[in-house]
Structures are given as structure tokens and as C-alpha cells.
Hints:
The complex is a heterodimer. By secondary structure, chain A is mainly alpha-helical.
Amino acid sequence: xxxxxxxxxxxxxxxxxxxxxxxxxxxxxxxxxxxxLKIPIAPTPLTQKxxxxxxxxxxxxxxxxxxxxxxxxxxxxxxxxxxxxxxxxHIRYFWPDDLPDIFLLTQSFKYAAFxxxxxxxxxxxxxxxxxxxxYISAPSDYLMLIMLLIIGISxxxxxxxxxxxxxxxxxxxxxxxxxxxxxxxxxxVYFLIHIFLVFVLMAIFPISKLLHMxxxxxxxxxNQVDNARSKRHIAPWALKQEQEHAxxxxxxxxxxx
Amino acid sequence: MVKEFDIPALPTxxxxxxxxxxxxxxxxxxxxxxxxxxxxxxPGEKVDNWQKVAIDKMGELKSKYRSxxxxxxxxxxxxxxxxxxxxxxxxxxxxxxxxxxxxxxxxVYRRHFTFAxxxxxxxxxxxxxxxxxxxxxxxxxxxxSQCRRCSVFCPYGIxxxxxxxxxxxxxDVVGIGQKYCNQILGKALTIGNNLGLPxxxxxxxxxxLEEEIEEETGGIAVKYPxxxxxxxxxxxxxxxxxFAEPHIDGLIGYGKVFHQDGVSWTLSSYASEGANFGMFIGxxxxxxxxxxxxxxxALDLEVSRVMVGECGHAWRVAYSFWNTLSGVGVxxxxxxxxxxxxxLDHRYPQPQHIIEYTHDLIQRGKLVFDxxxxxDRTVTFHDSCNVARATNMGGILGGQxxxxxxxxxxxxxxxxxxxxxxxxxxxxxxxGGGGLLTDDLMExxxxxxxxxxxxxxxxxxxxxxxxLAAICAICKSxxxxxxxxxxxxxxxxxxxxxxxxxxxIMDKRKIEFQEDKSxxx
Lengths: 257, 521
């Protein structure tokens, strides 16, 4: 294997491990941190089923964002749906064998790159030109968009221009990562930029605002059922405190100060 | 001390203002003194090692509140919330944009608790908690009414109220409390209400009120029982209802409705306060202490129903938190909660809102109204933020929007809603909630009222609206103060139960009785 192949192979596993450990830690943290009070936000579902539907609508349709701002919704949704389709299409590279026929369906997903990049450009323009959003943006907010844009555009250059990379070699490299049968990777510059940034993005996922992805499932304003009167909701720390102070409370309750 | 400021003009359409950095810079509201801090368990002045204390407290809070942890991590700075806060719309100060307000807290969180913020602070906008930042916290977290409008529009439901409560708790712990909230809490936790009204004074007030109603109604003895053991209903209402205008007319309405229903009810002198400012300062413990007074009153008075009067955040605390804090509801296992649960009548929701109660009586035909008594009014309803975004009524989807409107329509012929994007879950705060209802915050109160005033102006022009009804003591006080600043009649703000009071026919049972008698004859 070439040095560069070894470098990228190592980078992949390091990024993957950082990603996995980081995400598990973060999800565990979100999971064990109690929500001591019922704080669902209107329009609030009254049943568990309603809450599940609400989360699904938020994830699939970005319902609240649609209510909020049609431009951000449009660009944000285009970016995410484009990214999703492209990720699905990328499974083919990691698939160790010949592709099942179902992958024929994902053939046209390559055009989703345009959707994704249009979404990203829209978000970037808003971040630069809308005064309010510029005010709240840190360098990392721009950097994240720039990285995603470079990933998208470098992928498009390889797909839609004559700068094709050796697709067989890509597949051997990528599926080799999955099956631990490591192979050389093509060294065209667009490809190297593309996967380098993808790996970096993977590594910074758990320490950046990309945490909105697990976060949405743990958001108490969205995932709580509005049934406070009929079902008691109490955090372990609050219950402990309540029990420890029981005697003192009894004293308070027993007399009119 | 109170600086001069311009009253915002009311535009025909609400526009997003250009940013004016530093527009609301300042020292914030009056700071609390030792005498108000210590009883709540907070230091009386800024502690020496305040930075360490603050950072430790932040760490504790984010481990106790999932909201804080998840909200600090999840924001992508999309900007959806930036034009949703009434204080930003009214003041143009960018730090009043919800995300920028959160970022005052989040930037410190990043600096001290995240990898990126520790090693690349500039890159991710992480900042140190220095004196300047602490001043900004005190100033700008007291320009948030915790109304939660931003949360409705956030794709992750990020609720600035949670961050603002956390920040205020950190401030209290380092010894920088807000005078208004903490002074009031002291009164509520020792005397029993925010006004510091002792039992004899409360009793006198209620007697005066009984006399006044008897005179006004021509001899109908509407009673305001206090500490009456064995009554069916314990009414917990904001103490403003006993004294302030227009609140007291709402209290008259409650009394008339109870009278017509023929139910026995009582107020408590020990728990004579529905408001719970413990929520505003973000302290679970203080909030719980205040809530426990109500449980004790319910137990001592042996009531079978607990009811809450017209108060926005009180209803949030009662509806969403009481069952958690003090076991008023179902499911708590401690001795006192168990006793209360045995005592309560579970055919009714516990606690129940006075609007739910009146609405139910109307549905069952137990109240008769002369709607023409309100014909001089064209009414619109202001959804109070805590009721609208944090509670329910009637157990039906959106019941908190439906029930008050149905009660109003049952007693008034002329009703108009304000523009859809300014009501219901998207309602604009009155500008005085969340512990800001104090004269030293008048500038932000007036500026923050602008979006609500703008929507009101539109229905005034287009539909001749001359009455603004609300079910929140803070809204009522705030509107009385700010309406004239925008050229409205300050008396146009009324309690929903004032409208009920004006239309209710009080001698219905007497008439029925006479009719029955004549049939027998």
C-alpha cells in the first residue's frame, strides 16, 4: 500500500472511532440527564402517539422551521434531503460485493448533489447577507458550510465533469475499509479533498453543532407528552431530595410558622 | 435613575428592525440586597471566587436539567428565532435575539465544558466568564420574559426560558439577585402572598368586597370565604386579584360564578398567592417551597378540589409542575401527597383552572347571561404566554386557546381575534412577564409591548376593538401601564371573569323558585 493510502485508511478509522465514542458518550449524557419538569412546548400533543408523530414531522418536514422562516426552511430542507439521498447512493462504494438490483433505483440520486449544493449556497448567502444571522455566526459556522460545500462540489466534479476518478478503485478502497481488506485509493486531488473533509467532518461531529442530530430526539420541549396532571413526572435527584427532606417538610407542614 | 427613552411607533405591519448594537445596554434591574438574598439561601453580595462558583453551578445545572445540556449543544445558529422575540422587535438590540441571548450563556459553556471551546475558543465563539460577561448576563437575562415564543419556532424546540432561568440561578448563587423577584419571594414564603398582605388585612379586603357586591347587585350576598375548613374548593389566585385594577373585577366574577353554582369554596390566608416567582429565578427548590404552602393549605382546609385563578405563570406551575413539586394531582408516593390524593375528588382535574370550571358550568347550562350587558364592548383575547405555550385546559388539543374564547363568546356578542401570527401558540408576550414587572425595567417593558400593541392597534382600527381580555395578573398590570403609552385607553384591559361578571344574571335561582311556587299555587 502507498503511504497516502495508509494515511487515509488510518484517518478513516481514527475518525470513525472518534465519531462513535463521541456520539455514544454524548447520547449517554443526554440520556442520563433527567428532565425534572414537564416543559413541552405548544402546540403540544396530549398522547405518546402524538409526540412520536410530532418528532417524525420535525425530522422529515422540519415543521417548526417551516412555521418560522420559509427561506431557511427551503434551503435547510433542500440541503438535508439532498445529503440523505447522496448518502444512500454512497452505500454502493462500501458494499463489499456486486450490487443488488435495488441499487439501480439509487442511480439517479446523484442529481441530489445539485439539490444539496443549492441548499448550502442558500444557507451560506443568508449567513453572509442577512444582518441578524451574520451577527450570531461564529467562524465555525461558516467553516462548516464551506466544508460541506467543498465536499459536495468536489463530488460533483468527479461525477459530472471529465475529472472522473477510478470508480473501481474507489469501491475497492471503500469496501476494503468495511471488510478490513485494505486497498490503495485513487490519488486524484478532488477525491482526496473529498474524503479528507468527510473524515474530518465525521471526527468533529460529536464536538460540534452537528449534535443537533441526536439532540432533537432528546429535546424535552418536543419529546414530552402533555399529561402532567394525570401522570406524575419526577427526576431521580428531585425524588431523592424530596425523600431526604421529608422530615423537615413534615415539621413545616405541621405548624403555621 | 430611570432613563428617558422613546416610545416605539406602531407600524402598520410588524417589521424586523435593523440591528442597533448596545441599544439596551445597561445595568439591568435593581439588585437584591442581603436581606432578600439570604432567606432564599443565596449570598448577599457577589462572592469573592464568583467565577469558580458560577462555573461549578453551570456544571451542576447542565447535569440536572436535560433541557440545558441539550439546548446548549444543539443550536446550529440557523437564525429562525432571530426575529421572534418581542424584546428584540421592540428594542433592536441584537442581544435580545433569542439565540444571541442564549449565546451569552452558551459561549461560556463552550469555553469551560467543550473540547472545541477549550482549545479553539475563537473558532467556535467561546468566551470567558469575566465581569463584562456577568454584567451582560444580568442585564440581558432580565430582558427575557421566559415567554417561550422562540421555542415554538426553533426546529429543535430550544427554549430560551430554560437558559434564562439557568443563568438567573447562577447569578443568584454568586450573590447577584434581582431585587424585585427575590424581595417578593421573601414575602410569599413568609406571609403567604407577594403583596405581603397579612390575614387580617386580607379578611377586611374580602369583607369590603362582599359589601360592595351586595350593594351593586341589590342585595345578593356573594361571599368570599377565608380559611373555611371543609369547603369543597380551595381557590388559589394571584394576590393582585385582591387589590389591583382591573384584577379585582375578575375576583368579583369568580365569586359570582361560585355563588351561582352554589358550591362551597374558600381562599386560604396561609397560601394566598397563586403566583410563584420561584419559576422566574429558575430555582426548583424555591419554587417547590412556594408550591408546598398550597399543598399544606389544601390539607389543612380539607378541601376536595384545588382551583387556580387567572394567572399565567401560576397556571403553568400548577398545571405542569404541582404534581411534580408537591404531588397535587396523581401519583406521588409521600405521606402528605397520599393524604391529599385521598382527599381530592378525582372526578375533576386537579388542579383545575377557573376558566375550565366556568366553561363547564356554561356547557351544562348552569349559568345564565345577559350578553347585551357587554354590548358596548368589542372584545379581543390576549393569549398569555404561559397559559398558551406551557399548559392545557379541558384536556383537549389546544384547549387553552379554545376554552377562554368560548367563555368570552358566551358572555359577549362582539368578539374578534387579533392577527393569527400574534395569538395562540404564537402569541406575543405583554412585555412584563418573567419577573420584569417592575418600574426599574420600564424601558424594556414598553419596548417589548410594541408587537402586541401593534396587533391590537390593527383590530382597533379595522374592527373597533375597545376591550382587551386576559387571564393573567401580570398581563393585566403590564397592560394597564403600557396601554396609555401607545395611545390606548388603560381601562380597556379586563379580566375574562370581569366580562362574565358583567353579563351573569344573578337572581336566576330566585326566579326559578318563584316560578315553581306559582305553578304549585
